[in-house]
């Protein structure tokens, strides 16, 4: 929970398995900050305009290329940034794999330059995670003192005037969720044991994400709900968008995992995206055949992982070129979550749709082989 | 020739229906103080300008042919009329109001509609004359389309000049650019008109001179302008579409002779003009109106809200959401406004627009629920409202009659769907129903009758009504049949009857009855009897009967004379009786199934008529049922009908069933017979074990391949019954096996003591709570 302490086990960014957004895109952020001459809200590293540029991609006047981080409706990003600029908390909602966490990380990185003030919501998240805890050894030795206090990421964000992130807000128990109400409305966190309170500095805000499918788990109280502006992240609109997202992420992941260089064939990416889209929507892309949908969500994120997995297979065990056989196992694993019912769905899809498609013969055979 | 003095000329180029343009026009007129105003619009409407003060927008100028075209195709093509809509936020309306308030003379200066309509009529008739040429392009894009690519570029300039300008300004959406630059301006900003005219002039330089209709329109506008200037007016304001502004501003640069030549010998028709009420829904571009705006409600709001348009809009949205039962607090509205405003800043817009408020509505007020937000947003963006015109407006007598009827019956013309539930036993309700049916006869579809949900009885009628501006046109077109609704409807009925076939005549008869057209009815009925005599197709006759029988039976609810109707219906029934036996000969399975439906309907019609006619019908059926060669489906059905009506006793029925189910009959025919026989309900089998036994024996005696062949048919027959019925038949079939099964149904032992309270309650219900006298 405490991200800033424990120096002995800290990793340096170059070695990190997955560097933070502000580390990966440090150069872009710097260039943007230099080019950005618009008014910045208090506590912001960039102006709202520059933040949208950072997320949606642009070419700066000095020639720096800003890669697009979020591919999709511009208005989603604009509403999100404008919300944070009005110091309202932001709630990102969407089915799993619609880049909620991704968007929240990059927003924080661009606005506060630090995306690490993170609380992961789980059924076991306690109140300490959103308020503060104690270092019990010190508490026993010295009694209540500032030194014995272990601040939560939220408290740290308040003190620094940064943005705190809460993942999977609806998975937290309701009483822990409600601990946020004071933070969001009073912008202060009292510590009665010490008789002090931490007042949020300007620039503090919260970005929370929640899952559509988990809505029933611990639904937000209306008091808390009211303190958020809600942005619903859509599933990618067009197949073309989704192919772009997948291509970009697969490339980046491959780089950070230092996989041997495998040209991720656009054909294979397109195929995986097509399979996912068709199974998700229950109808083929040409709108000609109805197919059954499996129980899994089949998000873009899963498509990305299927491809990364396939690339690893191709690099280490194959001939270095991504072949249908490399993605077949992964795709089946993603689709067939429930052995019995999804298995039927997948076989039916293979036989009715994949089999007859031009140029999909090899893929069909590979899938049959895996399934057998 | 002396150069025209244009120093007092002010050309205000606007966007039609733009609130910012309207504000700017108001400010400009107050500054110019013109002594004459010219407005883009049909000059035929000049005489109607004095009515402006009494109109309530949205209204439209309607120009229509004085004599509706006789040719049905031309009449249907909507070429015979044209609308010029005005909303409260239209700059043209602002100019009209200014002129009316300040007593300044106003003229409409566009090309007369007499020419426009004449051209359109010629176009509409052209394809029907040579039969091959498809209509050339769109109304507006029709002229001067060539294949050469440069011309295509120029066309784009001419068709979408604002799009080109917006692109130059770095906007991807022309509407939004214009909104930002012109429409969202507030009072007190300098006049935008010189700049607009300059911009348009630049675009027009690129696109080359106007051609075709556009050139003729501008020539006419200039002619009017010249005449006005010559009359000695010193300060003339012209309100026209921005596109035309440069052509009018530079009127002195255009040679008079060229304009005169352009306007020479244009075709002309006789037209009338009037004001009609209009609706926001029709103004919306989605409604198919070319110069429409996407969100008339939003524009109306921008124009009418005294200040703080965003705050007011979102407050209104919150109120609407609360009406729908959603909890929306003031703090939602506050945050919504803040989000809309910061979004506008982020996007570099001067003021939050419709996009921004819509997003604030979704993200804050609706807490991310797009469906709920879209609902509220849509209704508010259209902001449905309907204008009104004073009674002094020129109208055809038929319109006046309808308005009088509306007033008398307290039935308001409203632009949204409204459900009307009429109880025909009440005088007022009956009259409303009659009015709506008469209008239907005239093809003025104000309302459509709805299927009445069962059990309401024949004295109930449901309508869904909605007044559309087009209905005024329909009324004007219908006015050639008469001056009152009743008269016109009767005349129309007679005309439609003249060349209708039998089924249509029956429908017409029913409509005549519903519309209470006692004058037209005898004629229609006479035609009906004639046609019935000559029409050889018995299914036509059978189709004609049910509505007639219904009307004859229930006509008295509406107070019509039923005796005559009854006579006609009985006559048709007799013809059916004669025509039916030969017609049901040698039909295949599908045709037989269709015939069964007809026979069913005729049977219920005959039952409604009763009396001698019914007896005759049943006699026909009885004869038919005995015929050997009848298709199994029909034969089975007839026997069932006769047995239901009590004309065949159980024994005879069993005999016939046995005959049909005997080994000698082709199994498929037997199955068809069974299907006809059991159609609708199989309960007869539950109550008659012997009948079930016959079928059982037949089934068991079928060789295997035959059984497989008839199985689908049987499945179809029994599959149509509901679950309980099927179960009961199954149980009955189980009992057939012998007493063994019956014995297996052990009676449930009843605990009398525990059942006593339940029995007492049931008794109390049955006896209506009264104690039994002991």
What can you see in these coordinates?
The complex is a heterodimer of chains A (372) and B (774). With 372 residues, chain A is α/β, with parallel strands linked by helices. Chain A has 15 helices and eleven strands. In chain A, the strands form four sheets. A five-stranded parallel beta sheet of chain A has the order 4-7-10-3-11. A two-stranded antiparallel sheet of chain A has the order 1-2. In chain A, strands 5-6 form a two-stranded antiparallel ribbon. In chain A, a hairpin with a 4-residue loop joins strand 8 (188-191) and strand 9. In chain A, helix 3 (48-56) packs across helix 5 (100-112), helix 10 packs across helix 12 and helix 13 crosses helix 15. The longest helix of chain A is centred in the middle third of the chain and has 18 residues, at 239-256. The model of chain A is unreliable at 1-7 (pLDDT under 50). Chain B is an alpha/beta fold and 774 residues long. Chain B has a four-stranded parallel beta sheet, with helices on both faces. A three-stranded antiparallel beta sheet of chain B has the order 4-3-7. Chain B is elongated, with a radius of gyration of 37 Å. The chains are: A alpha/beta (372), B alpha/beta (774). Chain A binds chain B through residues 48-49, 52, 75, 78-79, 81-83, 85-86, 88, 91, 93, 222, 225-226, 228-232, and chain B through 327, 329, 331-332, 335, 338-339, 342-343, 345-348, 355, 359, 362-364, 367-368, 370.
Reading the helices and strands of chain A in chain order gives HHHEEHEHEEHEHEHEEEHEHHHHHH
Strand content of chain B: 5-15%
Question: Main sheet of chain B?
Answer: 4 strands, parallel
Q: Looking across the biggest beta sheet of chain B, what order are the strands in?
A: 1-6-2-5
The helix tally of chain B amounts to 36
Strand-helix topology:
The complex is a heterodimer of chains A (372) and B (774).
Chain A: H1 21-24, H2 26-35, H3 48-56, E1 58-59, E2 65-66, H4 74-85, E3 89-94, H5 100-112, E4 118-120, E5 132-134, H6 136-142, E6 149-151, H7 153-160, E7 163-167, H8 174-186, E8 188-191, E9 196-199, E10 205-211, H9 222-225, E11 228-232, H10 239-256, H11 266-281, H12 300-316, H13 324-335, H14 339-354, H15 361-371
Parallel strand pairs in A: 3-10, 3-11, 4-7, 7-10
Antiparallel strand pairs in A: 1-2, 5-6, 8-9
Helix pairs in contact in A: 3-4, 3-5, 10-11, 10-12, 11-12, 12-13, 13-15
Chain B: E1 9-14, H1 19-32, E2 36-39, E3 59-65, H2 72-76, E4 81-86, H3 91-102, E5 106-108, H4 113-130, H5 149-159, H6 161-168, H7 174-183, H8 193-207, H9 212-230, E6 236-241, H10 245-249, H11 256-262, E7 271-277, H12 280-283, H13 296-304, H14 309-323, H15 330-346, H16 354-365, H17 370-382, H18 397-408, E8 418-423, H19 427-441, E9 447-450, E10 460-465, H20 470-478, H21 485-498, H22 502-514, H23 521-534, H24 538-554, H25 562-583, H26 589-609, H27 611-625, H28 632-644, H29 650-660, H30 667-678, H31 683-687, H32 689-701, H33 704-719, H34 723-736, H35 739-744, H36 752-766
Parallel strand pairs in B: 1-6, 2-5, 2-6
Antiparallel strand pairs in B: 3-4, 3-7, 8-10, 9-10
């Amino acid at each position: 929970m405490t991200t800033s302490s424990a120096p002995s086990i800290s990793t340096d960014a170059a070695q990190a398995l997955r560097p933070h957004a502000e580390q990966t895109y440090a150069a872009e952020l710097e260039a943007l900050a230099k080019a950005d001459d618009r008014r910045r809200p208090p506590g912001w590293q960039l102006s709202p305009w520059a933040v949208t540029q950072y997320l949606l991609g642009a070419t700066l006047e000095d020639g720096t290329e800003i890669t697009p981080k979020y591919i999709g409706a511009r208005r989603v990003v604009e509403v999100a940034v404008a919300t944070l600029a009005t110091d309202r908390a932001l709630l990102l909602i969407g089915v799993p794999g619609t880049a909620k966490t991704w968007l929240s990380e990059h927003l924080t990185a661009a606005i506060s330059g630090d995306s690490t003030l993170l609380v992961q919501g789980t059924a076991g998240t306690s109140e300490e995670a959103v308020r503060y805890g104690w270092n019990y050894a010190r508490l026993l030795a010295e009694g209540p003192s500032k030194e014995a206090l272990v601040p939560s990421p939220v408290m740290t964000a308040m003190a620094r005037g940064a943005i705190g992130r809460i993942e999977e807000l609806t998975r937290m128990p309701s009483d822990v969720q409600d601990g946020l109400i004071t933070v969001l409305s009073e912008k202060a966190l009292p510590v009665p044991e010490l008789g002090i309170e931490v007042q949020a500095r300007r620039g503090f805000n919260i970005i929370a994400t929640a899952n559509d499918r988990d809505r029933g788990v611990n639904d937000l109280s209306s008091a808390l709900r009211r303190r958020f502006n809600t942005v619903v992240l859509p599933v990618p609109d067009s197949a073309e968008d989704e192919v772009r997202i997948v291509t970009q992420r697969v490339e980046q992941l491959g780089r950070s995992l230092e996989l041997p260089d495998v040209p991720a064939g656009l054909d294979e990416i397109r195929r995986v995206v097509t399979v996912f889209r068709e199974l998700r929507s229950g109808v083929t892309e040409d709108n000609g055949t109805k197919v059954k949908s499996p129980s899994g969500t089949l998000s873009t994120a899963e498509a990305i992982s299927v491809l990364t997995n396939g690339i690893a297979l191709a690099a280490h065990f194959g001939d270095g070129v991504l072949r249908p056989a490399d993605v077949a196992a992964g795709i089946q694993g993603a689709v067939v979550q429930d052995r019995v019912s999804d298995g039927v769905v997948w076989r039916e899809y293979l036989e009715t749709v994949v089999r007859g498609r031009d140029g999909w013969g090899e893929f069909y055979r590979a899938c049959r082989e895996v399934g057998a | 020739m002396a150069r025209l003095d244009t120093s007092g000329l002010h050309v205000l180029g606007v966007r039609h229906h733009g609130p910012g343009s309207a504000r700017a026009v108001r400010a400009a007129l107050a500054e110019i103080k013109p002594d004459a105003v010219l407005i883009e619009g049909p000059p035929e409407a000049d005489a109607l300008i004095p009515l402006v003060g009494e109109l309530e927008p949205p209204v439209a100028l309607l120009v229509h042919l004085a004599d509706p075209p006789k040719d049905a195709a031309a009449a249907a093509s909507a070429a015979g009329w044209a609308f010029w809509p005005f909303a409260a936020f239209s700059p043209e309306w602002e100019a009209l109001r200014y002129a009316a308030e300040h007593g300044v003379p106003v003229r409409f200066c566009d090309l007369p509609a007499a020419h426009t309509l004449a051209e359109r009529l010629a176009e509409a008739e052209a394809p029907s004359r040579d039969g091959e040429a498809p209509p050339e392009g769109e109304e507006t894009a029709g002229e001067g389309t060539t294949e050469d690519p440069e011309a295509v570029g120029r066309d784009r300039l001419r068709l979408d000049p604002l799009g080109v300008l917006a692109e130059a300004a770095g906007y991807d959406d022309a509407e939004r650019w214009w909104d930002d630059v012109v429409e969202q301006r507030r009072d007190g900003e300098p006049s935008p008109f010189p700049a607009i005219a300059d911009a348009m002039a630049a675009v027009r330089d690129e696109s080359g001179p106007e051609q075709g209709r556009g050139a003729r329109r501008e020539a006419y506008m200039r002619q009017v302008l010249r005449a006005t200037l010559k009359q000695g007016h010193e300060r003339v304001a012209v309100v026209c579409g921005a596109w035309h502004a440069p052509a009018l501003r530079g009127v002195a640069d255009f040679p008079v002779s060229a304009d005169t030549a352009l306007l020479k010998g244009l075709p002309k028709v006789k037209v009338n003009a009037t004001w009609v009420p209009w609706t926001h829904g029709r103004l919306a571009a989605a409604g198919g109106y070319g110069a429409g705006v996407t969100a008339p409600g939003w524009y109306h709001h921008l124009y009418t809200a005294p200040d703080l348009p965003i705050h007011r809009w979102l407050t209104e949205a919150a109120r609407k959401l609360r009406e729908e039962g959603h909890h929306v607090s003031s703090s939602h509205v506050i945050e919504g406004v803040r989000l809309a405003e910061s979004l506008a800043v982020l996007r570099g817009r001067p003021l939050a627009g419709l996009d921004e408020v819509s997003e604030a509505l979704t993200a804050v007020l609706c807490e991310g629920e797009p469906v709920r937000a879209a609902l509220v947003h849509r209704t508010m963006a259209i902001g449905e409202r309907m204008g009104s015109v004073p009674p002094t407006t020129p109208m055809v007598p038929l319109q006046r009659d309808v308005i009088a009827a509306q007033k008398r019956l307290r039935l308001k013309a409203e632009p949204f769907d409204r459900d009307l539930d009429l109880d025909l036993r009440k005088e007022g309700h009956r009259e409303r129903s009659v009015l709506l049916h008469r209008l239907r006869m005239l093809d003025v579809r104000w309302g459509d009758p709805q299927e009445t949900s069962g059990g309401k009885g024949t004295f109930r009628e449901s309508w869904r009504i909605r007044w559309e501006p087009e209905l005024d046109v329909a009324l004007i077109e219908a006015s050639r049949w008469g001056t009152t609704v009743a008269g016109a409807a009767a005349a129309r009925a007679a005309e439609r009857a003249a060349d209708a076939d039998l089924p249509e005549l029956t429908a017409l008869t029913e409509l005549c009855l519903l519309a209470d057209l006692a004058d037209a009815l005898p004629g229609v009925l006479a035609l009906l009897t004639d046609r019935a005599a000559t029409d050889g197709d018995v299914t036509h006759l059978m189709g004609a009967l049910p509505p007639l029988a219904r009307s004859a039976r229930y006509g008295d609810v509406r107070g019509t004379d039923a005796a005559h109707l009854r006579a006609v219906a009985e006559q048709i029934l007799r013809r059916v009786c004669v025509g039916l036996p030969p017609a049901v000969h040698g039909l295949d399975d599908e045709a037989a199934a269709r015939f069964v439906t007809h026979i069913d309907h005729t049977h219920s019609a005959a039952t409604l008529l009763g009396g001698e006619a019914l007896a005759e019908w049943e006699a026909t059926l009885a004869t038919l049922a005995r015929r050997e060669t009848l298709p199994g489906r029909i034969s089975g059905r007839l026997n069932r009908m006769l047995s239901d009506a009590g004309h065949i006793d159980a024994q005879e029925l069993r005999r016939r069933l046995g005959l049909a189910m005997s080994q000698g009959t082709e199994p498929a025919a037997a199955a068809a017979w069974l299907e006809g026989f059991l159609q609708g309900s199989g309960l007869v089998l539950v109550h008659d074990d012997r009948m079930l036994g016959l079928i059982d024996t037949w089934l068991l005696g079928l060789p295997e391949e035959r059984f497989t062949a008839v199985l689908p048919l049987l499945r179809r027959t029994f599959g149509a019954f509901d679950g309980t019925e099927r179960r009961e038949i199954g149980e009955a079939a189980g009992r057939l096996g012998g007493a063994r099964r019956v014995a297996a149904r052990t009676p449930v032992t009843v605990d009398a003591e525990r059942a006593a309270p339940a029995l007492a309650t049931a008794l109390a219900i049955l006896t209506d709570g009264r104690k039994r006298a002991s």
